[in-house]
Write a structure and sequence with these properties.
about 140 residues, Arc Repressor Mutant, subunit A, globular
Length: about 140
């Protein structure tokens, strides 16, 4: 019996989960503050100068409440801070604290290591091709 045909979104989701689960395991094993998948995703979409909760939620594809909960936990852990948004009296910007910046840099190093491990498993040419393909512009959404 042949395995069922899997669509690209399923395969891309599996690949993303491999990276996220591997990153979470490595970060949690390093003895740092335990983080969740949502918190890792939040760090990935956070601008260096700060980002509003609404923008974070949109980029993550989650509700504002979910983004707010993730931010609140990371603020409590000392990894993020809220500062006034100079362009809006009603909004606050979410930024990394110095401790959060260290955690972000650690995650960046771990992701590089994971890419090297993936290259050892599937070949450096495959990883290079995958990166080139995923970096191509996909154009506007189909109508």
């Amino acid at each position: 019996m042949h395995p069922p045909h899997r669509h690209l979104p399923q395969l891309l989701g599996d690949a993303r989960r491999w990276f996220e689960d591997s990153l979470l395991a490595a970060m949690n094993a390093s003895g740092g503050h335990p983080v969740t998948s949502t918190q890792v995703q939040l760090f990935a979409v956070l601008d260096a100068e700060g980002t509003t909760i609404a923008t974070l939620a949109r980029r993550m594809g989650v509700t504002r409440q979910t983004a707010h909960q993730a931010v609140h936990a990371l603020v409590a852990a000392g990894l993020l801070e809220q500062t006034p948004d100079p362009t809006s009296a009603r909004q606050r910007l979410i930024r990394r604290t110095p401790q959060g910046e260290q955690a972000h840099q650690q995650a960046e190093r771990l992701l590089e290591d994971l890419e090297h491990q993936l290259a050892e498993r599937i070949g450096p040419e495959s990883v290079s091709s995958l990166r080139k393909i995923l970096e191509l512009p996909w154009g506007p959404l189909p109508s």
